[in-house]
Design the sequence.
């Protein structure tokens, strides 16, 4: 390559001169620095040391009050309470043991608290603040305040602590706050937000608390105070008040939420109810739930283990994170696709001999039923699989994909909660990307058949099904689903609405919508769910579904003979009232068995509560139906909304769970295949 | 077997022992001060320990690469650095108002840090290739090679790093033979300009005056340096507080872990750029002089290696690396003691920060590699 040329003497000499000059220059500069140090530390020592002694202007951050979270009727779901604590700065305490002994005569300090304090003492610096006691009551606090002068180095502090008065109710919506961790700090530092979190001890970790962290937190204030040599404040020199965090009004109705949660007692499952006109989420159930209050001050090891290792996975947000093959509840959308794409008319009849044959393979109806001549209406009402099996190859998987995509199946809905999963809306292109081996990448005609009845590769979140139902109820107008409807500034009372106009409208023919809707009405009147909806005072439309968890390979399915965890999932989707829908929902009871007997009655209870004659539609909401009323408050567009939710970032601390793994199993796609073994 | 032993000896004895001894002393001192600066046990303390080990590892590896190979890598390294800087310009991540980071999918890097090594390598490569026939045009080319990355880093904006890159590159040009007849007048002009700015501080620091080349916050820094009292609780706070901390340390210092100013949170950025204030408060004038002597030895050792190097490339690069340490220390201590404006330059081997330490480790590795190398005579 390059020859290293022999250095000439001349070059070396010239270099030597320059090195000498540089060296002398560097040493002279260092000499200058020494002179500067001498000037500061010797000549100006007295003055600066004196200033250091008086230099007791401490800059104290004043953490803001975190915004409250309210339900749509103003019921408080997350609030803060004042907690008094005692903190100790070891450097200012002369005799630690004596101080503790004297202090415990004033304020109760348990042996455990004392041990914990001594442990922290050994691990922290001399100027660190170490918490000795929290939860002082008013009496203890005032006692200490009166005797504070006897305890230099001990400070009475007040802090805000988060509280969730409704406990387990809506825990997956609210999420929780937890102690600011090192990772949180590093992230805040990157965002240039660390300064704003000085003095703040907790941060949103999950749910609304996390996704709306920026709005909830507020702006930290600053107080410049003169302090004595021991750090006790004497007077305030300057103060910038903190700006409290915004209050969030949810679209959730806690009454409805509790009615729904009540139905899931002892079951595993999920329910999402949406107001189709606005996209407001009215109820959002993930069962079983957990108590977010456990997390606010750092969860203890035992509780964490119990929650994290429970086979029921209470920490998982099922409507967002569980992906299921939604079974027959997919059929109304397939029917609509067939009509819209002109593949079959509503009146066209096909023969249902109990099975559909394709390439020598027979696809059978559930429970061996034979329905005879079947049109679209009957197919939906009795839930004929054969009818929809036959539609599959006619529509084709890609056309079905393009149609269903508009309803949000297999798409991120963009709801303001973290940890949402996309699921799988199969297409030939999807399969090419999802698999490595060429023979697996090929799409087989038979696969389209099972896709058309909501089985096969389909894997949707329950939120997607609820949203699709809502869009269907709303005649194809897509309102983005959201939980926070209004952001309120607690000082000015200024309220900003989050979603005010539709994202887009799916072009659908009214007569096609009517055919599907009429069939869905009859499902509840005379079809599979008639028993659950007998005697309802309103007219609802819906569809039951049962999703296979375990394929029994030819053997007949008998619920009571199968292990509970391998039983089918019971599903239901519905909306009501038909003429003017005010609620649309989807729900799943995991391993519940039949959709008609297990899932539909839950929907009935929820509808009954929401549509009870006493509740007038105006009183429930008072929000303008779309399009937004002219006097509607300022709108928060897509961008600030998106800025609050780092969607692409993987949710931190997501409980790892094989049962909810992303890749659909080949044998029983999307089902919790991990449980098979 | 004998060859294996020989190889093992080369690998293990890749170090330049005087340099290594200075470095280990500095690392020890750095960790000691860090322990006090973070206020006892803290994750940054452990982190810094890990950073030191990584830097030592990088130094060792680089020390094993013979200079000819380094030289062959130089243009590629430089090109990669400039491309990444352009990437930052267009796709970079912004934090605290400056765009310095580039997300590569598997991790984030700060390309400007890499240029601290790449620019002097490139320039040394250039001068080596044209040695013996260096003319005026070559200095123009070298100037352009230096100014491209410099301008890109200034635009981020990151004045501290830009200054270091410029310093390192300029040293190569200087050692490469830039005429003193040119240098002396420029130096004088600069001194005159600084004097003028200091003298007319009152007028040019008025809010309305636009400084064209510098960002507002940079102007503010210069102005608060000239008169820290003008903004005692805002930006001047840093300088005043660190001067008070240093001064109150006196001749003997307040004692290890006893610095009140640092522990009462008066010193900002006390684990990073302002760590010297913590050190000087606790160890006093003696400590400060001792530290500067250590740095002086480091620079002199580097210059010695440059003097003894056998190739032009080695001489220029080693000289530049040695002087880079000098610039680091001078700018940092100068800013903490209030004689230079506050620019984000860390104190080598003392300030917290993994990337900066890694760069320093690589610089030391290059010095060792050059120091060890004897070209095969033909």
Sequence:
């Amino acid at each position: 390559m390059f020859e290293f040329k022999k250095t000439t003497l001349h070059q070396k000499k010239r270099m030597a001169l320059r090195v000498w000059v540089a060296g002398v220059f560097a040493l002279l500069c260092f000499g200058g620095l020494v002179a500067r140090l001498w000037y500061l530390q010797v000549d100006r020592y007295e003055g600066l040391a004196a200033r250091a002694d008086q230099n007791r202007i401490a800059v104290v951050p004043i953490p803001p009050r975190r915004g409250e979270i309210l339900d749509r009727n103003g019921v408080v779901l997350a609030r803060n309470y004042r907690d008094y604590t005692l903190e100790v700065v070891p450097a200012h305490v002369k005799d630690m043991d004596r101080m503790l002994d004297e202090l415990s005569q004033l304020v109760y300090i348990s042996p455990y608290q004392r041990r914990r304090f001594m442990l922290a003492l050994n691990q922290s610096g001399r100027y660190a603040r170490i918490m000795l006691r929290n939860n002082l009551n008013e009496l203890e606090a005032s006692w200490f305040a009166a005797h504070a002068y006897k305890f230099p180095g001990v400070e009475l502090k007040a802090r805000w602590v988060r509280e969730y008065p409704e406990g387990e109710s809506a825990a997956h919506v609210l999420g929780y706050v937890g102690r600011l961790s090192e990772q949180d700090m590093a992230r805040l530092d990157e965002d240039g937000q660390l300064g704003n979190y000085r003095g703040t001890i907790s941060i949103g970790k999950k749910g609304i608390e996390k996704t709306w962290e920026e709005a909830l937190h507020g702006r930290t204030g600053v107080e410049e105070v003169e302090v004595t040599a021991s750090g006790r404040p004497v007077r305030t020199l300057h103060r910038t008040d903190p700006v409290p965090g915004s209050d969030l009004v949810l679209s959730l109705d806690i009454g409805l939420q509790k009615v729904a949660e009540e139905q899931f007692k002892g079951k595993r499952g999920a329910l999402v109810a949406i107001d189709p006109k606005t996209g407001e989420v009215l109820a959002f159930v993930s069962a079983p739930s957990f108590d977010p209050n456990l997390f606010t001050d750092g969860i203890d090891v035992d509780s964490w283990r119990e929650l994290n290792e429970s086979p029921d996975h209470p920490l998982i947000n099922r409507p967002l994170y569980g992906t299921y093959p939604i079974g027959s509840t997919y059929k109304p959308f397939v029917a609509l696709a067939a009509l819209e794409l002109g593949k079959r008319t509503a009146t066209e009849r096909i023969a249902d001999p109990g099975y559909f044959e394709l390439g020598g393979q027979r696809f059978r109806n559930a429970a061996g039923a034979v329905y005879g001549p079947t049109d679209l209406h009957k197919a939906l009402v009795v839930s004929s699989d054969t009818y929809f099996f036959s539609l599959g190859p006619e529509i084709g998987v890609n056309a079905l994909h393009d149609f269903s995509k508009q309803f949000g199946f297999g798409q991120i809905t963009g709801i303001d909660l973290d940890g949402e999963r996309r699921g799988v809306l199969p297409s030939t292109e999807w399969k090419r990307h999802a698999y490595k081996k060429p023979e697996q990448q090929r799409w087989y005609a038979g696969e389209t058949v099972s896709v058309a009845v909501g089985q096969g590769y389909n894997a949707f979140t329950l939120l997607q099904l609820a949203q699709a139902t809502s869009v269907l109820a709303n005649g194809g107008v897509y309102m983005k689903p959201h939980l926070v409807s209004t952001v309120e500034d607690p000082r000015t009372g200024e309220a900003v609405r989050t979603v005010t106009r539709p994202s887009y409208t799916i072009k659908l023919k009214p007569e096609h919508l009517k055919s599907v809707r009429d069939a869905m009405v009859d499902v509840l009147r005379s079809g599979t769910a008639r028993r659950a909806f007998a005697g309802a005072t309103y007219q609802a439309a819906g569809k039951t579904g049962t999703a296979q968890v375990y394929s029994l390979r030819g053997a007949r399915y008998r619920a009571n003979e199968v292990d509970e965890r391998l039983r089918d999932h019971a599903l239901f989707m519905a909306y009501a009232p038909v003429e003017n829908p005010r609620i649309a929902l989807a729900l799943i009871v995991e391993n519940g068995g039949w959709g008609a007997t297990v899932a539909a009655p839950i929907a009935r209870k929820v509808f009954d509560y929401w549509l009870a004659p006493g509740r007038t539609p105006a009183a429930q909401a008072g929000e303008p139906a779309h399009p937004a009323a002219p006097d509607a408050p300022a709108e928060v567009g897509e961008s600030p909304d998106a800025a609050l939710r780092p969607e692409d970032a993987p949710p931190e601390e997501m409980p790892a769970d094989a049962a909810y793994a992303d890749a659909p199993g080949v044998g029983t796609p999307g089902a919790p295949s991990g449980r098979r073994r | 077997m004998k060859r294996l032993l020989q190889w093992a000896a080369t690998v293990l004895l890749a170090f330049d022992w005087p340099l290594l001894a200075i470095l280990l002393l500095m690392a020890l001192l750095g960790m000691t001060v860090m322990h006090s600066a973070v206020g006892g046990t803290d994750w940054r303390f452990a982190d810094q320990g890990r950073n030191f080990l990584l830097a030592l590892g990088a130094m060792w590896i680089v020390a094993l690469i013979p200079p000819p190979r380094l030289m062959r890598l130089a243009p590629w390294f430089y090109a990669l650095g400039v491309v990444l800087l352009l990437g930052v310009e267009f796709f970079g991540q912004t934090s605290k108002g400056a765009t310095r980071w580039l997300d590569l999918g598997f991790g984030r890097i700060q390309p400007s840090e890499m240029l601290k090594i790449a620019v002097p390598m490139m320039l040394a490569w250039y001068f080596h290739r044209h040695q013996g026939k260096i003319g005026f045009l070559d200095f123009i080319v070298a100037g352009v090679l230096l100014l491209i990355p410099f301008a890109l880093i200034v635009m981020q904006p990151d004045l501290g790093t830009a200054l270091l890159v410029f310093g390192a590159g300029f040293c190569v040009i200087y050692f490469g033979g830039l005429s003193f007849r040119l240098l002396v007048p420029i130096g004088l002009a600069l001194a005159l300009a600084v004097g003028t700015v200091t003298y007319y501080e009152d007028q040019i620091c008025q809010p309305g005056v636009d400084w064209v080349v510098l960002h507002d916050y940079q102007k503010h820094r210069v102005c608060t340096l000239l008169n820290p009292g003008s903004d005692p609780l805002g930006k001047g706070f840093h300088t005043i507080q660190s001067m008070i901390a240093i001064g109150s340390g006196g001749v003997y210092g307040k004692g290890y872990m006893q610095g009140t100013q640092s522990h009462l949170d008066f010193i900002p950025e006390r684990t990073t750029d302002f760590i010297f204030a913590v050190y000087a408060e606790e160890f006093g004038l003696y400590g400060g002089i001792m530290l500067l002597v250590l740095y002086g030895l480091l620079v002199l050792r580097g210059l010695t290696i440059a003097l003894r190097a056998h190739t032009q490339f080695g001489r220029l690069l080693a000289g530049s690396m040695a002087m880079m340490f000098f610039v680091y220390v001078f700018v940092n201590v100068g800013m903490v003691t209030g004689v230079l404006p506050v620019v984000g330059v860390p104190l080598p081997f003392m300030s917290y920060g993994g990337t900066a330490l890694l760069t320093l480790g690589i610089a030391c590795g290059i010095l060792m590699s050059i120091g060890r190398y004897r070209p095969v005579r033909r």
